Backbone:
């Protein structure tokens, strides 16, 4: 079929042709935005889920919704051990300069800009000329305590927006990568913002360990944020994600082919896009996409996933970490693992294995869905490990001399 008309677009954060199965979260966001504009406090959102479930896609859709409702927005992706101050400063500067310096709000905006300049100075950050035209005010977001200074800064920015009946939404992808003290400071700041019903919300997206991480940092996190889980699509939603775009493009697909795509992808949105994309290209113009086509593109899809989606994570690992994941893949039976499962396969020492496990958790390669067990953060990663890496040979046991 014509590749230009191909409705499927696999990519990092690329919007699918049909966003299905996320209605509950979109409804939550509608309520959050509406209550914020109405001056009523509401829990901000922290989207959690494995890689490839569409968290970034959903985050982008929510930002679009916020803009349509008149919110001023900041959107960025956090990197490992990023500094939250550096992450926010440029976006806050733009928001403040975009506000109307009317007589009613001028003083609040000026004060917020001074606080921004002071805050950036304590972190040795360069933000350029903010155009304040006033001397710094000592004691304004410049104590050197990140929690106190960030809280004061965001309160002042929120008050400036409130004075003009505007609201602010901050979107943070991969939020679990913030250092603990940075993430803790952000949580504390939004606690104060919610207490005062100021018009600022934060919507983050991260791996499944995000709720536990936030709760360990600040015990009140569960009362401050809602943590909707984003998982694989149901069979019905996966069917719609495949059939609707093809039908809208004027083509057809056999129901057996749709079922086969669901079986191969387990309902994960990114994988659905990959199989749909290649099935379209493999089908002759005017023909129906068949189950045989799905089987025929299997090798091409897996090769593409291995080279891009999986290898991006694999290449960040040390040899020892790769070995641990290979043992995980061998021990896995489709359920989260316990350390004794990996020990049984590897014949390794629990203490040494536990150290490797901790490093993999820090890198976001594995997570703990509940206490005492762990699993891959990337769906189907165990199958990838088996395709990519042979099972390491177990060390030979030395024989005692007679």
Residues:
């Amino acid at each position: 079929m014509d590749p230009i008309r191909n409705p499927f677009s696999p990519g990092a954060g690329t919007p699918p042709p049909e966003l299905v199965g996320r209605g509950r979260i979109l409804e939550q966001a509608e309520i959050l935005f509406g209550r914020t504009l109405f001056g009523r406090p509401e829990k901000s959102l922290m989207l959690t889920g494995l890689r490839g479930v569409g968290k970034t896609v959903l985050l982008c859709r929510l930002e679009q919704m916020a803009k349509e409702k008149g919110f001023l927005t900041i959107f960025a992706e956090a990197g490992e051990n990023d500094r939250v101050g550096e992450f926010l400063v440029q976006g806050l500067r733009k928001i403040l300069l975009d506000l109307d310096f009317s007589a009613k709000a001028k003083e609040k905006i000026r004060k917020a800009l001074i606080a921004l300049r002071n805050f950036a100075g304590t972190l040795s950050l360069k933000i350029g000329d903010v155009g304040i035209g006033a001397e710094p005010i000592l004691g304004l977001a410049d104590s050197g305590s990140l929690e106190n200074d960030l809280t004061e800064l965001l309160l002042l920015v929120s008050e400036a927006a409130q004075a003009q009946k505007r609201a602010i939404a901050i979107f943070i992808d991969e939020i679990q990568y913030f250092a603990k003290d940075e993430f803790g400071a952000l949580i504390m700041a939004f606690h104060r913002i919610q207490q005062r019903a100021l018009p600022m919300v934060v919507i983050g997206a991260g791996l499944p360990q995000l709720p536990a991480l936030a709760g360990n940092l600040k015990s009140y996190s569960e009362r401050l944020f809602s943590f909707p889980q984003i998982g694989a699509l149901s069979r019905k939603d996966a069917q719609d994600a495949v059939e609707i775009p093809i039908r809208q493009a004027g083509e057809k697909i056999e129901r057996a082919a749709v079922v086969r795509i669901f079986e191969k992808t387990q309902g994960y949105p990114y994988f659905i896009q990959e199989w749909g994309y290649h099935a379209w290209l493999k089908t002759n113009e005017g023909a129906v996409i068949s189950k045989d086509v799905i089987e025929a593109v299997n090798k091409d899809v897996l090769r593409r996933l291995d080279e891009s989606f999986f290898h991006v994570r694999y290449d960040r690992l040390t040899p020892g970490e790769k070995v641990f994941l290979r043992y995980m893949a061998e021990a896995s039976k489709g359920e989260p693992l316990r350390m004794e499962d990996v020990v049984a396969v590897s014949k390794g020492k629990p203490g040494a294995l536990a150290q490797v496990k901790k490093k993999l958790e820090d890198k976001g390669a594995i997570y703990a869905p509940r206490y005492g067990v762990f699993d891959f953060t990337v769906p189907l990663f165990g199958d990838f490990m088996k395709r990519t890496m042979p099972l390491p040979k177990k060390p030979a046991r030395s024989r005692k001399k007679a």
Observations:
- Residues 291-314 form the longest helix (24 residues).
- The mean pLDDT is 90.
